[in-house]
Amino acid sequence: MTRTRTRRAALAAVLALPLALGACSSSSGDDASGGPLELTALDYYTDEPSHTDTEKRLSDCAAQAGATISHSSVPSSQYNARVLQQVSAKTVPDVVMVNNPDLPQFASTGALVPLTDLDVDTSGYLPSVLETGQYEGDLYGLAPNVNTLVLFYNTQMLADAGVAVPTTWPELEAAAAALTTPEHQGFAYAAASGTEGTWTFIPFLWGNGGSQLDLTSPQAQEAVSFYTGLATKGYVSTSAVNWTQADAKDQFAAGRAAMMINGPWQIPSLNATEGLQWASTTIPVPAAGDTPVAPLGGELWTVGRSTPEREQAAASVVTCLNAPQTQLATALQNNTVPSDSASAQQLAQQQPEMAPIVQTVTTAKALTSDSGLKWPAVDAALSTAIQAVISGQESVPDALAAAQADVEAQ
Amino acid sequence: MSTPASTLEPGPVDPDTQGVAVTTAQGAPRGVLRRRRWTMWWFVLPAALYMLAFFAVPVVNNITTSFREYTTATFYTGEAPFVGFANYVDVVTSRTFGRITFNTAIFTLVSLAATFVIGLALAVYFNAHFRLNAVLRSLVLLPWLLPLIISSAVWRRMMEGTSGVLNELLGLVGLGAVPWLTDPSVALYSVIIVNVWVGIPFVMVILYGGLQEIPQDLYEAASLDGATGARAFRRITWPLLRPVVVIVLMLGFIYTIRVLDIVLALTGGGPAGASDTYATQAYQLSFRDFQFGTGAALSNILIVVTLLVAAVQLRANRRASDLAG
Question: What pLDDT sits at residue B28?
Fold first, then answer.
C-alpha cells in the first residue's frame, strides 16, 4: 500500500520536475571563488563568421586582463528583451553589446557603468563616435567600428544619361528626374515603417539644420517636402513605403534604380552582383558648401554593473576590443569605419571605395544625439509622417504637426 | 485503482496492491481515503503549477503592469509608480486609437468571414468522394505547414508594386497594377488576403471533420423525400454542423484578432499606420517604444474584447446545442 503511494507520489514529482528546474535555473555564474575571474559577454552576432570572430577577440582580450570570458549571442530580434530581463534579475553580463539607438534606454536603467568612472582612455576616438556612446554627459559605450549612410550611384546609368554625380539637393532632384526612364527609377530609398525608414531620412533633416525634436520647424518641413517630393514626382517608386534598406539595395542591384541611399554593409552584395558598376559619394546637401550630417550606426561595447573588480576587468576588455589594430582588421573584414581617426584614414587609403564613408563619418552625429530617450517616439512618428505624405494621405504640414504631437505626447 | 482487475486476477498478487483492493471493496477507512485523495492532488500539482507559471503569472503581471508607469529603468530599480488608469486613458485618447480599432474590426471580421466561407466550401467539396481527394486535401493544408514568417516574406515579394508576380499577372491579362502594400486604402485588405490564405486550412480541417460525423443515411432518407443539393445542405448539413461552426468561429476569432507576425512581416503596420491593429500597436508600444505600461494596457483591452466575444459565442453555442438536444 505504502509502496504504491510512494510510487505514485514519485511519478507526480517527476512530472513536476521540469517546472521546478525551470523555476530555479536563472542563477548566474556570479560566485567569486578564487582562480581567474570568469566574465560574461552578450551580443547579437549570431551569424558566422561574426560569432566566432567576436568570440576569439573577446577571449584574447580577456586573457590580457587575466580573466576568462563566456560569450553568448542572442538573435537581434530578442536581444533587447533578453538584456532587460537580465537587468531585472540583476545578472547583467559584464560586457554587453548595445545597438547605438538603444544606448539611452539601457544607460537610463542604471545597470551600465560609465566608462569614465573606470578610467578608459578615449583620446584617439573621433568625437562623433564618442557622442554615440554618451548618455546625459557620461560615456557608457565605445564602438570599435561605425557605419553611416551615403549615396550610391550606378556609374553606367549616370554616364549613359550624361548626368554628373549630384552634390546638392537641386542637382539630386535633376539627376533623379533625368535618370527616371520606363526601365528604371532615378532614385531609391527605404521608407518602410520603423527605424530603417526613419534613419534613411535623417541625413536630409540634419543636413538642412533640422532637429528630431522640432519636426514642425521650417527646416524639417523643407527636408520632408524635398525628400517625399522625389517620390510623389515619380523619381522614387511609391513602393518605397514598404522598402527596407535591403529592398532598396535589391532595386539598385537589379538595375531598377539609378541611385540610392544606403550603408556600406551593402558593398559585398553590390560587388557580388555581376555587371553592376557602382560608386558612392557623400549624401547631397541643400546648397553647395553645406556640410553633410549623417547619422552614425554601429554597436557599442558597454560594461554592466557588478563588483568593482569585475567592472575593472570588463573595462579592460572593452578597451582592448576597441584597440586601433583590431579596428582596422574588422573594418577591412566587414565594411565598417574604425572609430580611431588614424585607422580610419588608413582604411580610406587601403579601400578607396570606403573613402566617402570615412569622410561622412567624420562629420556624422549619433543617431539619437538630439532625441535621446525620445528616439523611439521620433522613429515611429517620423516614419509614419513620411509614409503619409508619400502615399498622398496628408500634406507635409499636417503630417509633421501630427508627428510632433506624437513625439510630445510621450 | 484497479479493483476489479486485481480481484479477478489469478495466481500470486502483489500483497500491497491486493491490500488496497480489499479495503476499498469493503469500504476503506477514512484515513486511507484521505491519503489517497492527497495522492490525487500530487497528480493535479504539475498541471496546477503549469497553469500558475504560464497563465496566471503572466496575466496578473500584465494587469498590474498596465496600472504602473513601467519604463526600462524599472527593470533595474524595480520602481514602477502606480498611476491608476492613466495608461488606459493614454491608449484610448491617443490619436491612433480610433483607426486601430477600426482596422482591428475590419481585419478580424473580413478575415473571419472570408476564411469561413471558403473553408466551408472546400470542406463540403472534399466531403464528396472523388479520385485524388486525399492528395488534394493535403495540398490545401500547405499554408498551415509553412512558417508564417516565410510565407509572409514570399507574399510580400509577390505583392511588390513594380516587380511583384501578382502585378505582372494582372498586367498579362490587361489589368492595371495594384499598389498592394503601398497604398493606405489597399494595404489592410492585402494583409487580410494573406491572413485568409493562412487561415483556410484550419477552418477546412475542422469543418471537414464535422461533416464526416453527419450520418450518410440522413442524406439518403432526405433524397427519397426529394431534398437534395442546396436543400439538403440547408436542412441537414447546416443544423448538424452548427456546434462545430460555433467552435470554428470562436477559435478563428481568437486567432485572427491577435495576428501579429503576418502584419509585421508584410507592412509593419504601414503605410502610415494603415494596417496597424491592436496587436501591432501593443507590440510597438512595449517592444519598440519601451512603454511597457501603455503596451500592457492595450493588450489587456485586446484580451477583454476577445473574452467578451468568446463568451457571447459560447452562449450562442449553448443555445444551439439546447435546440439540437
Answer: 61
